[in-house]
Fold this protein.
Amino acid sequence: MFFSIVIPTYNRQPILEKCLRALENQRLTDHTVENYEVVVVDDGSTDGTLTWLNAHQAEFPHVVTYEQNHQGPSAARNLGVQQAQGDTIIFIDSDLVVTEQFLQSHATALQTEEKALNSDRLFTYGAVINTCNFENPTAEPYKITDFSAAYFATGNVAIAKKWLEQAGLFDTRFQLYGWEDLELGVRLKELRLKLVKCPAAVGYHWHPPFTLEQIPKLIDQEIQRGRMGVLFYQKHPTWEVRLMIQMTWLHRVLWGLLSLGGTLNERTLAPLLQWLINQKRPQLALEIARIFLNWYNVQGVYAAYRESQSEA
């Protein structure tokens, strides 16, 4: 098989460098992978990403680059798929650093499961470990919070190009934060594709250590996610989608109780969060912050839903 690793990027040059170097350092142990390319789609970066890539082209022989005006990851991934030369697409993000066995692990899992099922209606989903260790991201151990129950998520997934084309690629109306990959997953599930977990294909998802200064952006992302969640539900008005986007009475009660009706928020919890950060526990601080972040999300999804109903 010929892999095309599609990577949308926007102002991520320092971590993108680590991402691309890891992909150039792949160890292929058999002939399952005939060849591979790394398709980087620059989504209107302003940090000199393309200039840097052009200057270091010789160091990344597998990389091909495309650029577009800033349109979001859905449009960037669609462009990457449309330009891809491979028969199999791997989606990762530009802040993911993979191991040497990454491509081989996806290839082996795809081939083994296809033989077992006597069908190619499947895709593989690798492991994603979150880390804030920029110098050595692959040193991070697996944590319970790294578990994902998603059916299709673009953080680390390998799938035949033909199934993406048959499903219709990503819906570019998802221009704000969230849900574009899971929405495509619903359409792939309708094509009866089987999810195959591939824990040996490990990617380390880097993000900067949590600080209080990040909170306004995180709140805004949750509100955006609420709006995109309503678009998701409008396309697929099912109970399963309502659960995914947290638009149920259960989520309103749960996060309402945990946040004491919004009393536990970015202001009242700030001293505790800062203390944890000072104790070098930024990940724990972030998990506690998710109490009010989820409350903002639930509030946002219902506000966007009411707005959509009034416009109907």
Remarks:
- Strands lie at 2-9, 35-43, 63-68, 88-92, 96-98, 122-131, 156-160, 194-206.
